[in-house]
Amino acid sequence: MNRAQIRHLLDTIGNMFPDAHCELNHSNPFELTIAVLLSAQCTDETVNKVTADLFRKYKTPEDYIAVPLEELEQDIRRIGLFRNKAKNIQKLCWILIHEYGGEIPREHEKLVQLPGVGRKTANVVVSNAFDVPAIAVDTHVERVSKRLGLANWKDSVLEVENKLMKKVPREEWTLTHHRLIFFGRYHCKAQNPQCEVCPLLDLCREGKKRMKTR
Predict the structure, then answer these.
(1) Contact (Cβ atoms closer than 8 angstroms) between residue 181 and residue 44
(2) Tens digits of per-residue pLDDT, 5-33?
(3) Residues within the annotated binding site?
(4) What's the CATH code of the domain at 43?
(5) Is 76 helix (H, G, I), strand (E, B) or coil?
(6) pTM for this structure?
(7) What one-character-per-residue DSSP string does 144-211 give?
(8) Structural domain that includes position 64
(9) Which residues are known catalytic residues?
(10) Residues forming the annotated binding site for [4Fe-4S] cluster?
């Protein structure tokens, strides 16, 4: 894909989803980190339902470690992998209190060392909480990038991230991340992509194939 095609792609999804944003409800970097940690293998919608009560009950890292693990597990039990996530939240809060003065660190390399925080979570936190350009590759970003030819079918998540970082201007990384998610969540869905009305059909390997078989 050449530079003009990439620009066309970015402008098109920008026009389709000009208001794309992080859909996880949060009011500070700490809440965002907890929400993203909870969102692994779980929809943002479910996470927001759970955190509506969770963030009223727990305001600080100290609050999370003041209760027994079983209580926290019950508070998030509607979330997939809730036992493991509850354990990670308490470990993460302990580290924040003892190593970072109760605050979420701003540095990517420190974030990825926190329990339950992988590269994707760290990218979401630095870009949304601290305005550091980053592209977090979730299931939507990966699927759309591969369908549109921004990455190869067999690329790993890290390879997809690296290719997007090379192809997208740095100042557009965070915005493009949100727009690719919205494009994948509301338009180019896994099961029923809207190929017949897609303005990017001419660039899409998957779409061309699907339209031929109809």
Answers:
(1) no
(2) 999 999 999 999 999 999 999 999 999 99
(3) 188, 195, 198, 204
(4) 1.10.340.30
(5) coil
(6) 0.91
(7) HHHHTTSS-TT--HHHHHHHHHHHS-GGGHHHHHHHHHHHHHHTS-SSS--GGG-TTGGG-HHHHHHH
(8) 29-129
(9) 120, 138
(10) 188, 195, 198, 204
